[in-house]
Each structure stands twice: as structure tokens, then as C-alpha cells.
Amino acid sequence: MAPGVIERLAALFAPPEVPGSTPSRSSVVLLTQLRWTAVFGQLATIVVVSAVLKVRLPLAPLLLAPLLLIVINLTIARVVLQRESFTQREMFSALMIDVVALCWQLYYSGGATNPFTFLFLLQIVIGAIILEARWSWLVALNACLCMALLTFFYEPLQLPDRLAGDHFHLYIYGSLFCFVLAAVLLIVFVVRLDRNRRESDARLAAYYQQAAEEDHIIRMGLLASGAAHELGTPLSSISVILGDWSHEPTIRDDPDMAADLADVRRELERCKTIVSGILMSAGEVRGVDPAVTTVRGFIDDLAEEWRTRIPGELRVIDRMAGDVEIIADPGLRQIVGNVIDNAIEVSPDLVLIEVWLEGEGAARQVMLTVSDRGPGFAPEVLRRIGQPYISTKGRDGGGLGLFLVVNVIRKLGGAVSVENRETGGASVQLAIPLATLALEEQEQRQEKQ
């Protein structure tokens, strides 16, 4: 049988709990799994009581309940595979199925004289845990009504002669077995629910953290955009003044002064590019349009730009089988530049950049790893990568570089992973969905706008 068929059959019998499941879905999955336990437990009990203890049971109605539960479970399992959440009414209905099924079984097996009536308490506890108060009270009320009915109306068990005169001891043994069964099921259920609750709390905490980080980014973006606006005018004035100075005979005829002025003008152009990039990231394109290039061309240009600024070696390891056209967004250049700058600061002699393409179709990604030979990240920093002001550099305002990298890449639908290398140093890996950079995708977005 094909593995895919086996997985689908397994999903019908035991719906999987997927990461990020809502608490209601997790509760329904758990109820479905407990119902399977009840089905197999009922069938095993019927076999033992009728075959081993030789008790004459009304097999037709007793077998009808587990058969109906099997059909209901398979139906619910198919619904669970297509749903992400369930209402309180739906969970109450699922739990009432179990209450009615247990009442049916007990009616044909001794009613209130059957020690398995204590399983109603298990269903009341489950309802109190997964349901709101009013629904929990309805479960308890229905269980009490079932118990009252079974006290006065039931089909007595037809015990064999050897057991007919010892009802009390038989009831005690049954009570002991029922107690152990209820204790085990309660532990399993409560432990699973507690795990689901902790996972839900962890996801909620992560959402709050992400919201706080995004709020921090918005405030930083507003500040940076305002600063860029204010810097634009003086930078333009300085550029005009330097242009005039370059034509002055005193400076033009002095090679040293001319070279120094050229350096100043080069750095000024770099400042203007940075300001333009900040304004573009804020949605204000200011004369610098994103360029059409390829992944390989983007990395080569970026590496060449940084090689002119460092005394050591910046080595690019190209592991791409092909190449793809992309939009070289200035904001992306700054983000990758942040990672390179951090690596150069701790390892000025050698920085490695590895690039390759991974995945197929819509899931295809550009994988970019920047590695250094520095001291690596401290354990407490590794645990909190992506949070603002987490840095080992010990200076005020530090730790924003990786914070911006993580959040910008996350906005692009990608991910950032950081690790210390076994051979020494650290590596930062950026996984960027190609769909967010590809030329065709960008053109489609512009047409929609």
C-alpha cells in the first residue's frame, strides 16, 4: 500500500495536531482520540464479559453503540482535516455524543448497578476543562439526568450461577477497574490539554513580541525618514560647494588636495545613497530607482562595493546552478550590507559569502550565508537574536543591525538563522523567497497597483 494512502487512513483514525492549531481544534482532536479508546475499550469489555465471565449480554444493542461511534469518529476526522477551529456548541455536541453512548451501553448492562457509571464523572471533568461555564453545566446536567434514568430504568445483567450470589464483590472489582481507568484517562487528557495550553500561550507571547518589534520598527522608520528629510538639503548644499571647490585652481593643481576632495565627494555620494535608500524604504522614492539585475550580479556588485572598504579578503562562494533576474531593492542592499558590516567588524581579515538557490516553484529561495572568523555569538545573544539592543559590542544603541535584518527578511516572507561555527566564528543565513525579488512578480504587483 502506498505511503500516501496509509497516511490518509491514519489521519482518519487519528487526526494529527498540526503546529499552530487553535485550542478548540486541539480539543476536538483529543476528544476523537479518547472516543477511539472508548470504542476499543467497549468492544474488549463485551468480549471479556461474554466469553470469559460467561455473562449473557444483549449483543445487538451493545455492539450498535461502538459501531455508530466509529462512523461518527470517521466523519469528525474528515471535518477536522478541513477545519482550523470549532465553536463551543460543536464541542458540546461532540461531548454529548459520548454521554449518550455511555448511557445507552449502561442501560443494557445493569444501569446504576454497573460500576462503569463513574465514567460520567470523567466526561463532566472534560466538559469543565474545554467548555465555557454554561456549556459545562449543560454537560453535568445531562450526565445527572442519564444517571437518574439508569437508577430506575435498566436491563439487569443475567449473571451465571457462580457469580449470581456475589454481586457485592463483583461490584467492588468493577469499581476498582473503573477507578484505575478513569485515573489514567484523566492524566492523559489533562496532560495533553496542559501541553496545548502552554503551546497556545507560547504562540500568543510570540505574537505579542512580534507586534512590539514591528511597533519599534515603525517608530524607528518614522525617525529615520524624518532625519533623512532633514539631511537631504545640507547634503545637496555640500555637494554643490565641493563641486565648486574642485574647479578652484589651488585645489585642482594640488594632487594631494584633489585626491582628498575626491574621497570626500565619494563618501558624500555614499551618504546621499543611504539617505535615498531610507526614503525609499519609507515609500518615498527620491531619484534612485531599483535596478533590474540577477542574483549573481547583485551579490557580485555588493561584494565589489565592500571590497573597496576593507583591508582583508571578502570571498564569494557561488554555488548557484543557474541565475535569475531580480529587482535589486536598495533596502535589501542595506540589509545584506548590515550583515557583511557586522562580520567585517569582528573578522576584518576574511569574510565568506555563500549563495545558492534552494527549492522549486513558488517555494524557491535565495540562500545567502555570511560567515566570519570572529569570536562568535554569546549563548545569551543567540537565544535572543532578532530582539532590539541585543549586542555583545557593549555600546549604546547597539544591537539594532540584526534586529532590522530579522524583521525585514521576515516581512519578505523569509527567515534568518544564526549559529556559531564549529571551526570558529559565526554565520548568519538569510533565506529569502525568490517570489518577492523576481522581476515577473514585481511587474505583476505594479500592474495591480
Structure description:
This protein is an alpha+beta fold. The chain folds into 3 domains: 3-165, no CATH class; 215-281; 291-448, Heat Shock Protein 90, CATH 3.30.565. The protein is 64% helix and 10% strand. The protein is built from 15 helices and 7 strands. The chain has helices at 3-13, 23-52, 59-82, 88-107, 119-130, 133-152, 161-164, 167-246, 249-252, 255-281, 295-307, 330-346, 379-383, 400-411, 439-448, and strands spanning 291-294, 313-318, 325-328, 350-358, 365-372, 415-420, 426-433. Strands 2-4-5-7-6 form a 5-stranded mixed beta sheet. A hairpin with a 6-residue loop joins β4 (350-358) and β5. α4 (88-107) packs antiparallel against α5 and α5 (119-130) packs parallel to α8. The two termini are 50 Å apart. The model is unreliable at 1-7, 283-289 and 442-449 (pLDDT under 50).
Topology diagram in text:
Layout: H1 3-13, H2 23-52, H3 59-82, H4 88-107, H5 119-130, H6 133-152, H7 161-164, H8 167-246, H9 249-252, H10 255-281, E1 291-294, H11 295-307, E2 313-318, E3 325-328, H12 330-346, E4 350-358, E5 365-372, H13 379-383, H14 400-411, E6 415-420, E7 426-433, H15 439-448
Parallel strand pairs: 2-4
Antiparallel strand pairs: 1-3, 4-5, 5-7, 6-7
Helix pairs in contact: 2-3, 2-4, 2-8, 3-4, 4-5, 4-6, 5-6, 5-8, 8-10, 12-14
